Amino acid sequence: MSSPIKNVAVVGGSGNLGPAVVNELVDAGFEVTVLTRGSSTSTFPAGVASKAVDYTSVESLTSALQGQDAVVSIIASVAVAGQKPLVDAAVAAGVRRIIPSEFGINTRFLGKEPIGAILQGKIQTLNYIHEKSKQNPSFTWTGISTGLFFDWGLEHGSIGLNKDTKTATIYDSGDEPYQASNLPHIGKAIAAVLKNLEKTVNRYISIASFNPTQNQVLEIVEKITGTKWTVNKLPASEQQQIGVEKLSKGDYSAFSNFLRKRIFEDGAGLAVAGPDNALDLLGLEGEDLEESLRTWLAE
Ligand SMILES: NC(=O)c1ccc[n+]([C@@H]2O[C@H](COP(=O)([O-])OP(=O)(O)OC[C@H]3O[C@@H](n4cnc5c(N)ncnc54)[C@H](OP(=O)(O)O)[C@@H]3O)[C@@H](O)[C@H]2O)c1
Q1: Per-residue pLDDT reduced to its tens digit, 9-21
Q2: 6, 23, 48, 79: which has the fewest C-beta neighbours closer than 10 Å?
């Protein structure tokens, strides 16, 4: 039985997801150190240490990770492919659990979907971690798929709603349930993984605050606002074609198009309900969809 995790290094704790994770780890009683780029101007809550590192240097990272029990990487999508030095440093520093920067769709079964081309950085990093873990059994990992960031996506358009214009974009019938998680809930799940080392060892898990359909979300926002919203209906398959065209020109914003096709398409089958949702394993409960939408509409 391994001793509990105490010291946690968070990589990229200043971005979209990072602050929620840092807060939840601190609340759960972990000693948190955030690693930042030398160029970073990020600031962190009182009691959270920060260390500037060079993400290309195993030496710099190994020195920063001395004494850390776990590494949680929330590094930016553009930087996920460069995590090998971080993995090597984690092994060298004796880190016991790494959670790599996944936090989206499950990257373990993408088949030949074109979105897989853009997710290679995540896929290769996890493959590398797996290999290192086999060579060093005390170095363990957990991958976490969260589906869409729901609270963040309401603000940033990925849920398809615009509260200023009261407009909803719905792909296909709008009846396909999709995996979605609120940022603080993801932070709680990460903390729970680090408190449940044995249950989560060398596993890829999926969590969801809820699995709504686009139509359910629309129905709730119409109920709360007391008005009918303008609905634009689009075929999900068109998003795939747009993505392929963009990618052929080296435009990686294709990711959003591929993502819409993958999760909203009728029959996508990517909801993580019942035993597929690891919240139970982590001792957590789901969240309230209507409450999340009320909070957003009131902001
Ligand atoms: N499921 C979803 O809907 C969804 C949405 C967005 C993101 N994600 C995923 O969640 C993870 C975290 O994404 P995020 O949006 O929170 O990340 P982000 O805000 O773009 O970046 C996180 C931090 O990474 C650090 N960083 C290190 N190298 C960097 C570089 N080359 N360029 C930019 N930043 C760099 C920065 O911290 P310092 O400045 O302190 O060094 C930055 O604040 C990723 O795996 C991403 O793919 C999922």
Answers
A1: 999 999 999 999 9
A2: 6
